[in-house]
Each structure stands twice: as C-alpha cells, then as structure tokens.
Amino acid sequence: MSPTEREYAVNLDRNDPLAKYKSQFQISDPDLCYLDGNSLGRLPLATIDAINDYMVNEWGKELVDGWSHWIDEAQPTGNLLGRAALGAKEGQVLVCDTTSVNFYQLCVAAIKARPGRKTVIIDAANFPTDRFILAGIAEQFGLNLITLDNDGTGGPNAVKINTENELITPELLEPFLNDDVALVTFQVIHYRSGSRPDVKAITDLARKHGALMVWDASHAAGAIDLKFDDWGVDLAVGCTYKYGNSGPGSPAWLYVSHRLQSELRVPIQGWFAQDDQFSMGPFFEPNRQIRGYQIASPSIMGLRCVQTSFKMI
Prior knowledge:
This protein has helices at residues 6-14, 45-62, 67-70, 74-86, 99-112, 128-141, 170-173, 199-208, 228-231, 300-312, and strands spanning 93-95, 119-123, 144-149, 158-160, 181-187, 212-216, 235-238, 253-256. By secondary structure, the chain is α/β, with parallel strands linked by helices. It has an eight-stranded mixed β-sheet with strand order 1-8-7-6-5-2-3-4, with helices on both faces. Strand 5 (181-187), helix 8 (199-208) and strand 6 (212-216) form a beta-alpha-beta unit. The radius of gyration is 21 Å and the shape is flat.
C-alpha cells in the first residue's frame, strides 16, 4: 500500500498507541487540525475538574487555612514535572514564576558564581526573551556579550558562524570558549528550525572551560525525551503552556542540579527562599536546596493545571 493512499493513513490512525489521549482533551471543533501546540497546548478535560474542585472545596471552604498544604506545592509539582518530562530526580525542579524571571534568576546566579569572568554567549536564533534579557544583564553588569549569528539576523557583538538550520555544535562553539566565559545559554530545540544541539556534549565542553550552561527547554519539555541528570545539565528553564498543556500564562519551571544548589545565589531574594521562612527574622538566610530558588507565593491554580497535564505525561 502506498503512503499516499488514504487507507494507509487510516491504518496508521487505527493502530496509533496514543490515539486514546485525544478523548482526554477539550475539542470543540472536530474538523480543526490543530498544529499550534508549540505555542499553546489544548485544554485537558481533567484540568476543568481539578480547578473547579480547588475553587469550591479548597479555596472556597478552607480560606487562609488552605495555605497549610498549599505553601510547599511548587516543590512536589516540580518533582512531578522533572520525573515526567525532564529526566530529573527529586529536589531539582521548581514550578514557579515565569520563564523570563527564572531565566534572569539563573543567568545572574551563574555569572555571579564565576567572579572575574566577563563574557557571556548566546545565539542569534535564540528566543527573543532570552536574547533581550541576557543583553540587559550584560549591560547591567558591564559584560561582554557574544552573539553567535547562526541565522543571519545578527545581534549584539554578532559573530557569523557557518552552520546549517541554526544548529550549534561543540565544534562551532569551542573557539569562543576561554577562561573569561562565565555563561553560555542555548535552546534545547530552536523554536523556528527545530534543530537540536547535543545538550550533553555542549554542557561538558562549557564545563571544561569553567563556564556554566543555562538551557531553555520551553520548546522541548513534553515534546522530546529529556535526560537532564544523565546529560549532566547544570541549569535549565522552561514553560508549561506549550507541550505541557497547562494553560495560557501557567507557571514556568526551573532546574538546578543538586551539585550547584548550595553554590549559587539568585539575585531576587524572596521570602520563600528564606531557610526558616516563618521566623520573620531581620536577615536573609537562604535555603541551600531547591527551595532557595523560589521567590514568592506559588500560583496554586496554575500549579493544579500543571499537575493534571504532567500526570497524563
């Protein structure tokens, strides 16, 4: 049977092991072929029940007493997301804030952890959020920002590199690495071309030169098999509303390897990062585990959306 024949496609649908999941999502137009999940995923039906139950039976009935079990919810939700989509053991992922805030937090923490180093590296094909934030950080701290021009659009201190489909390889990156580089940051999947750099090889290369690596997995988490622990990833961020199907503006996540958690200090020192949170003391004493990377009160409604979807994964 030819792949161009209708029956060929019908057979593929009939034998699709993932077909059962379609009925678990809200589909208002059965004739719509929705190909925009890379921007906003569909609504899981279970999320509707979870949010209604939270509003009526928790917030509605418990009021402020609900914080007795809501207050730490970013951490178990992070464990779930890490287990389901990142290949990360417990205690390394928080679901909190936005990708932009998390990216700023981890980039500044990484730069501060490499005092005396003045160079940071990004690529031109990176998502505007990351490029703009890193440019602002470079300006704020007087850093040398290098933009590897892998798509021809240029950028701050752009350096043209010879690449295909925006792909960054270790061989292309290595000439730019030296003992002045504090931070390198790339995407796990380039959002336009879909190219996938070798996460482990590039992370190992940056580490060999003493730099820290921040990966943005916004277009990867929930779409491809990630193995952060096995790959030796240092730091990573991502959102949950694309392949995570957690809703518009749902909270983002951050990953900090166990080996770095006590070393790094984030610039926004929030109440939730205080080691003894309810001592209400006069000085900031940071938690040295993953909780030390949380700024403020978690969005419980948003976390429930994340939980529903990543339980499905």
